[in-house]
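Project standup — Tuesday

K.O.: blocked on the structure for the chain from last sprint. Re-posting the sequence here as requested.
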Amino acid sequence: MIELMDHQSKTTAPMSPSVRVPLRRVGPPPAGELPALLIERATKKFVVGRKKKDVIAVDAVSISIRRGEIYGILGANGSGKSTLIRLVSTLLTLDGGRVEVFGHDVERDEMKVKQLINRVSVDAAFFKKLSPHENLAYAARLYGLDAREARTQAVTILGRLGIGEKRLSRPLEQMSRGMQQKVAIARALLTSPTVLLLDEPTTGLDPRSKLDVQSFIEEVRDTHDATIVLTTHDLDEAERLCDRIALINEGRVVAEGTPAELMTLVVDHHGKEPTLENVFMTFTGRSLDDDHDDKNEDDEER
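H.V.: unblocked you, prediction finished:
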């Protein structure tokens, strides 16, 4: 697998002296630097079917991510990527290996880890009869946040995502899925997580909403010094957002590197520039939209 040296990104426009220029840290972390997220030989098995056969959804996965990275995990349905996110977020327990968030073990230090992370899934759960404001206010109370400060912050975040104050009192069930997903992202950011886990956050969104969310993901990393782990089916999205990418197939990491470096590993025999799709096909032998026949897709939702 490819390992990359530390470097800073280029800025696309001059910034005023009062604006902090974000430091882009592309991993793996150098010796002596505590990883934002450390996964060592993480393994998760499920028992499925009438014959009670073990299915290995995550198979000895090892990943080390620096603070400030946007790290992408690409895999077809059933490849184990969402199961891996659930292991990091403490929603599932490990069958082997370990996972640490800034040195805190997800099993021994579960409560501390929960204070450092937040997760947005492809199907966010809400109180659908309540408004965005009421859902966010409820989340703020759960985390012990000041109600007035949380409301101000929520209005700012939602406005940045294209949801004006006039919509804050409308029940979520009356809003589009794209709007609901934006509310889910805003809810996650209310807690100012150090590590933000985004599990296919733009799947099913219209093009405008998708661009809004993608731009906001970049802004969150740059302004909040957050580390973001992103699973996605959108190869263009992965290339745009991710500093590094891991390709996962049948529960294993089969390649890792920056989008540019991954694309140097394949040759397009038609004389065209290689793409991430070429990379994915080369290392997995399948399309990103394919399901894994030997995996039960329900495992991904546990």
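K.O.: great, moving the ticket to review. The longest strand covers residues 53-65. The beta strands are 37-48, 53-65, 70-74, 96-101, 104-105, 117-120, 195-199, 227-231, 244-249, 252-257.
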